[in-house]
Fold:
Amino acid sequence: MRVLAIDWGEARVGAAVSDEEGKIAFPLEQFFETQNAIAEIIKIINELGISLVLVGLPKNLAGKEEKSAVKLKVFVDNLSKAVKVPITLIDERFTSVEATNRLRELGIKEKEQRGVKDNIAAQIMLQQYLDTKKARTAE
Structure:
């Protein structure tokens, strides 16, 4: 079962996919513009045989949804009308911060992180999901 994770933003959308066994998350090589996101997601679903789409839900430290969650939910509603694959919202707290830290550790300057950070955040979110699913299965 391949899973696609989406880190939605008002300007850019980052994405990551799992391997066929659903064990390892890989960031996509390029991000895509939010205005083209649904078409790009459909293309990825069809090309890679995706069976589940995860979309990061922005929450604050207290666990309450951020203001941008309203726009995200409109996007998810439109996406759900365009694809037949199940879509699940998951907590994306700290994924962008962790992505920034990882890229900084690799010596990538903040200006150069723009095109990569969203995909790394999606990868982190997806790997957390896969690891949690694996742990639940092992119980």
